[in-house]
């Protein structure tokens, strides 16, 4: 294959030996030439890239991306969609030419590789690796142009925002389909942690620019998150201003912490006893909570009271057993508070509650109640 | 610090970050109050930060860095030998951070650069982070700071009202 050889050459020039196999695979994409869309795109491409750019190169640059980098998660969805891919030739191509080369495609990605994924589809939390498509840059003077081939690749690669009517739409669909095709192809061995990026029309498909786009999107997403967190940041546009606002906010919070710790330091010594009592009650709670198995359970109470996750009903049942003076609040208030506590996942309260009915001495249960109140007032 | 012991004790206690922080911070306050001397606010602050970081756990970069800093500070006080060692290590980290930063910030305008470097200073461990993860961490850090401020204010109100 002439194209393959040339591709190899160019590849070697750029990257080195490691990804040669990948490159070959990309070249196998050639069957695309047969598809009908090509004309317009080829025109387009020629205008954009000049004579030097070869279609094969473009293919090399884009297709590896499409095919290889498929997040595992998506694969299930993707497979059924395969038929939706625009041209029949594509699927054929995949099965025929790619099937052989899969082993070559599959080998663990080089660290330098850029994974291209469509930001919409990629889950933000997923690990992101980058796959190298960098080796296949659309601009290689050594390539000869083959008229028919460019379609998808040229579309992606072309920076022009020219409108192409029917063909373009088809192409987009095909691109969407392309993803699924990838999965089907990579279904052999789904790859982990790749981002699937698809360039929209008129965007550069250079590996670097793709990676940069992914990065930018991630950053803007997090900026939005931060914007929500920082009050008064919603109206501000512009990264620098937003950063300023965020910084001010963090600084003010840190100052507040400083101020509050000063306040606590001055307040503390006088109220030593209170804290002592507060915490001694908590000590009791914690020690009892951990060694709750050792507690004797009154016959009236079910063992479920000792467990960390007490259902609310049992909790309510236990509450009335508390000595009367120690829950001055009406029962309804208790209910509400305890419910909220339970919802907050505050498990130590269960042990607190157990302590009351369990008839540890009155003073301790007093401490417990105090502690509950204190803690509630602190936390809520 | 004795506080660490208690933190170890309470680490089995699972709850929201809020409850964990409150537990730890109250323990720390109690320990600070043990020797009936007036406490320096600095100690309270350290206690607050370390209890927040340990409540968050080691899943976040900022909390890890914060804990490491606090521990290093304690060690520094404990022995001069370790002090020297840690200083050296700290220098290494600093240098790495500087390099990283240089690489990262290539083409941004000056205002943004300034803002970003400031943010890096503010968020613990931010010097060695990539920008997007810096934003992530700072978001979490802001949340935690909010929570911390709220709870500390509640405690202060409560104590001063009694």
TrEMBL record, chain A:
Residues 1-17, 159-174 have a biased composition (Basic and acidic residues). Keywords: Nucleus, Transcription, Transcription regulation. Residues 18-27, 134-156 have a biased composition (Polar residues). Residues 1-27, 104-191 are annotated as: Disordered. Signal peptide: none annotated. GO terms for cellular component: nucleus. It comes from the Eukaryota. Its main location: nucleus. It holds the Pfam family HLH. InterPro entries: bHLH_dom (IPR011598), bHLH_ZIP_TF (IPR024097), HLH_DNA-bd_sf (IPR036638). GO terms for molecular function: DNA-binding transcription factor activity; protein dimerization activity. Transmembrane segments: none annotated. The keyword Transcription applies. It is found in: Nucleus. SUPFAM superfamilies: HLH, helix-loop-helix DNA-binding domain. PROSITE patterns: BHLH. Residues 203-253 form the BHLH domain. PANTHER family: STEROL REGULATORY ELEMENT-BINDING PROTEIN, TRANSCRIPTION FACTOR BHLH74. This is BHLH domain-containing protein.
From TrEMBL, chain B:
One of its GO terms (biological process) is regulation of DNA-templated transcription. Residues 16-73 form the IBH1-like N-terminal domain. It comes from the Eukaryota. CDD domains: bHLH_AtIBH1_like. Signal peptide: none annotated. One of its GO terms (cellular component) is nucleus. It is found in: Nucleus. Keywords: Nucleus, Transcription, Transcription regulation. This is IBH1-like N-terminal domain-containing protein.
């Amino acid at each position: 294959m002439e194209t393959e050889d040339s591709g190899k050459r160019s590849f070697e020039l750029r990257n080195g030996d490691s990804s040669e196999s990948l490159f070959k695979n990309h070249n196998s994409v050639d069957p695309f030439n047969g598809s009908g869309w090509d004309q317009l795109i080829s025109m387009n491409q020629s205008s954009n890239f000049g004579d030097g750019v070869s279609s094969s190169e473009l293919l090399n640059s884009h297709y590896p991306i499409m095919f290889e980098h498929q997040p595992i998660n998506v694969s299930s969805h993707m497979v059924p969609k395969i038929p939706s891919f625009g041209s029949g030739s594509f699927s054929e191509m995949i099965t025929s030419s790619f099937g052989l080369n899969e082993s070559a495609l599959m080998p663990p990605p080089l660290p330098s590789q850029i994974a291209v994924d469509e930001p919409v589809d990629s889950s933000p939390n997923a690990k992101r690796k980058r796959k190298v498509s960098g080796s296949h840059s659309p601009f290689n003077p050594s390539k000869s142009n083959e008229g028919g081939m460019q379609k998808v690749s040229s579309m992606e690669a072309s920076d022009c925002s020219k409108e192409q009517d029917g063909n373009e739409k088809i192409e987009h669909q095909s691109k969407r389909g392309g993803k699924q095709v990838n999965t089907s192809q990579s279904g052999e061995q789904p790859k982990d942690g790749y981002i699937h990026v698809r360039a929209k029309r008129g965007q550069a498909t250079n590996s670097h620019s793709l990676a940069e786009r992914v990065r930018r999107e991630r950053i803007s997403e997090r900026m939005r998150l931060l914007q929500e967190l920082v009050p008064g940041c919603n109206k501000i546009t512009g990264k620098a201003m937003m950063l300023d606002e965020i910084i001010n906010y963090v600084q003010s919070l840190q100052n507040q912490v400083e101020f509050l710790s000063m306040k606590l330091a001055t307040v503390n010594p006088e109220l030593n006893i209170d804290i002592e009592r507060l915490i001694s009650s908590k000590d009791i709670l914690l020690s009892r909570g951990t060694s709750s198995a050792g507690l004797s359970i009154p016959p009236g109470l079910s063992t479920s009271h000792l467990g960390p996750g007490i259902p609310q009903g049992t909790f309510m049942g236990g509450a009335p057993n508390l000595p009367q003076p120690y829950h001055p609040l009406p029962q309804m208030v208790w209910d509400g508070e305890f419910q909220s506590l339970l919802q907050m996942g505050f498990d130590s309260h269960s042990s607190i509650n157990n302590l009351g009915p369990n008839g540890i001495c009155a003073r301790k249960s007093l401490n417990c109640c105090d502690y509950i109140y204190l803690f509630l007032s602190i936390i809520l | 610090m004795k506080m660490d012991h208690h933190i170890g004790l309470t680490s089995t206690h699972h709850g929201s970050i809020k409850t964990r922080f409150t537990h730890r911070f109250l323990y720390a306050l109690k320990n600070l109050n043990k020797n009936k001397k007036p406490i320096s606010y600095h100690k309270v602050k350290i206690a607050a930060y370390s209890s927040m970081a340990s409540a968050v756990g080691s899943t976040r970069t900022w909390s890890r860095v914060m804990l490491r800093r606090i521990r290093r500070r304690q060690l520094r006080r404990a022995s001069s030998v370790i002090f020297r060692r840690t200083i050296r290590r700290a220098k290494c980290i600093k240098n790495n951070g500087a390099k990283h930063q240089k690489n990262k910030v290539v083409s941004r305008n000056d205002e943004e650069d300034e803002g970003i470097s400031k943010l890096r200073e503010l968020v613990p461990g931010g010097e060695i982070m990539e920008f997007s993860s810096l934003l992530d961490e700072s978001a979490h850090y802001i949340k935690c700071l909010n929570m911390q401020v709220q709870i500390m204010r509640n405690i202060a109100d409560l104590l001063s009202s009694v």
